[in-house]
UniProtKB/TrEMBL annotation:
This is FAD-binding domain-containing protein. Gene3D superfamilies: 3.30.465.10. Transmembrane segments: none annotated. Residues 72-243 form the FAD-binding PCMH-type domain. Keywords: FAD, Flavoprotein, Oxidoreductase, Signal. SUPFAM superfamilies: FAD-binding/transporter-associated domain-like. It holds the Pfam family FAD_binding_4. It comes from Dendrothele bispora (strain CBS 962.96). Residues 1-23 form the signal peptide. GO terms for molecular function: FAD binding; oxidoreductase activity.
Amino acid sequence: MWAQPQHALFLCLLTTSCSFVSSSFIKRTSEPVNTLAACNRLQGLLGNTIVESSAGPDYNATVNSPRNLFNTEFLPTCVILVTEAADVQVAMKTIFEYEVDYAVLAGGHSANIGWDAVNGGILISFERMTQVSYDATKDTITLQPGARWGPSAMALAPQGVAPVGGRVDDVGTGLLLGGGLSFLSPGHGFASDNYVELEVVLVDGTLVTATANNQYADLFRALKGGANRFGIVTRYEVKAIHTGTPDEKTWFGGSVTYPESSFEALARVISHFVHNNDNPNAVHLSIYERINIDGLDTTIATSWLFYNGTELPKSVFGEFLSIPTLTSNLTSLSYLDVALALAGSSTPGQGVAWGSTALVGNELVDDLYLETVRLWLNFSNTFVSQIPISTLAFTPVTLSQISYGRERGRNAIDPPLIGYNAILQTINLPEGQKTVPKDVEEGRQSLLQQLPTSPGIPLYVNECDSEQEVFATYGGFEFLKSTYAKYDPTRFNIRHMDGPKGL
Ligand SMILES: Cc1cc2nc3c(=O)[nH]c(=O)nc-3n(C[C@H](O)[C@H](O)[C@H](O)COP(=O)(O)OP(=O)(O)OC[C@H]3O[C@@H](n4cnc5c(N)ncnc54)[C@H](O)[C@@H]3O)c2cc1C
């Protein structure tokens, strides 16, 4: 049978009693009767193994697959389990014609409510398009949109290549559309800077191939940061990075943990790293965590430090290693080891909420880093009994990374030529809890407003709260707006799909 929107989330919508329902989410405009007709039409066109109602064998697994528990509360009227670009074309033509709400699901790791799920509309899922291949002649990697970074790295490692991809194995290719921060980024830009060719289904179902130099070059660039607003990508061809085979231990690094007493010192180090270091072989990811789960009550920070070389150079990582640590686990690694260093850290079954800020780094702004950590810790301690996991993560966006993107035709994010840190604030709620308590949400929003931000530095759309106007912070904002107007003149996507604001 076709699903009706009857989950808790829909009831929340009616009563507006749930604090997590953002104003950008409440914009269902398609009539249920249209959606039923569209699903019937699609079932006729594509068959019932591809178009499933709630009675279908894969429907439940599909709607339950988003990592954010809140997004598993949505009930699409039908799911389209596409197997090729032509299926996506048929789906989009019908969605466009019947004017129905829709969502696209790839790896399911969006933190934002409704960005990969839809209530009462049509969900296009890429779970059956997961192939990854390497073309040695072209020296490129082709990813179907359902691929995930861990399995992709494992499949390609024997050939000595890897895409510039995510740092957690289970994350999917939606990462590319938001830009993409990788352990390879200092040397190879945002992940999407490595696009070679994209196959894209436009909002009306037209299939186009976009490259840096053809008539769709503007679309090609917009898809480097424009998230889910510019069409549905059905094939990504990206540059292959020659990272070596699993036997080649050409990297060095691992994780170092710090006690709370080192938090301020670590904040300074993170600030300095992005200012002082422009070595394309050096990268870190540093995460502060306030954890109160299963009797474990701890406050800790972890830095993952990696260098494409035989040791961690003191000139680059000395500050990280000179402050008091709890543990240190540093060794020779293959790139596959690096790509899988955080494997298994993605935890499904919990409601999550994220927010983004960004800071340039140097000694003069250390105070802003200290303030960021202090505000976050204060928030985390205040709500420790309600939030089992509260984190603050720092990813350096180095000068070399930004320069690389410019050399490859610029992305839509287009930061100024200044190294900065993309800063992510996250909470995970208790397993199974389906709402964010009102006081927690108010505290989180207040934290987001108070966190310092460097003017002119872009926020990261893959790490933002849905209320944040991320596109407006991009260097390519005007370009993005005009390109959106060109490819979606009736603003169909914005009217019928949840995603970033501001176009
Ligand atoms: C545990 C964890 C670790 C993370 N690590 C990193 C990291 O290392 N680096 C980083 O940059 N980000 C990271 N992220 C953020 C991540 O990049 C974003 O959440 C990203 O959107 C996830 O993509 P997905 O395919 O997994 O998720 P989805 O939720 O399936 O997709 C994300 C968004 O993209 C849209 N979308 C997906 N595929 C398509 C397509 N083919 N065409 C059009 N729209 C599409 C979806 O509709 C949705 O709005 C992480 C997130 C989590 C939860």
